[in-house]
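#onboarding

Welcome to the new folks! Below is a worked example of what a typical request in this channel looks like: someone posts a single protein sequence, and someone else replies with the predicted structure as tokens. Don't worry about understanding the tokens yet, we'll cover that in week two.

Example request:
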Amino acid sequence: MTESNPRISKAVIPAAGLGTRFLPATKATPKEMLPVVDKPAIQYVVEEAVAAGLSDVLMITGRNKRPLEDHFDRNYELEEALSRKGDDHRLKTVQESSDLATMHYVRQGDPRGLGHAVLCAAPHVGDQPFAVLLGDDLIDPRDPLLARMVEIQEREGGSVIALMEVDPVQIHQYGCAAVETTAESDVVRVTQLVEKPEPSEAPSNLAIIGRYVLDPAVFAILRETEPGRGNEIQLTDALQKLAGDEKIGGPVHGVVFKGRRYDTGDRGDYLRAIVRLACEREDLGPEFRHWLRSYVTEEMQPN
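Example response:
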């Protein structure tokens, strides 16, 4: 590893969104705290960062997000109650969240898009490369996407984004990348990025999903980036400038992910994620799968 490509240790998790798609559940509860089986969605994301070697986590929050801080803090009263009951298993699960990483928090204030949320991390990150993890995308821990992205960034420098093939008719829901192949089948060189293009104008069916490893040069670009689609400062616009001029902050590579991804930002996918993860749990899976088979069989019967 060269001096110009230092080891990455910091992760940034934007979590200031209002979660309007899950109203009324998110009226008083942050969407990141909605449970996926028996853990809040945000804990899976922090665990992923830690598994990739990123032990310093900055969460970009907003109003009504205090439960996020409380979840990753100690709850001495609860721990004492569980200890008195001898409930060591639940005590361990409660303590796990507060022992995961060194957590930091900053408020975004005026929500002006993902690019602005990332810019809020500049004082904490400084001049080192860092990772950005979006909370709506849960990546199965058996498919270590972020660790692969960190590996590529530390070797090649610049920035690395996560890409996934999607149905071309769905590409308008994502940022989209034009790419060139490399000697590695899962790594591409990004030449162009377009935010939510119409299918007829999309350069590929490679969609950007919610994982980034970024060169700190992105901060200077974001400060000069005008609001784009939705009158928000788009991270994709800043990455497009990096991809167009490697002298600014090195190349932009993409890791094409073919593993298991759970989208918890959509109500239907959120429910499917819960079912998939519950089915695979050793403690819940056998009984739950049995019930699920029976339920589906009953639903298929004619009335």
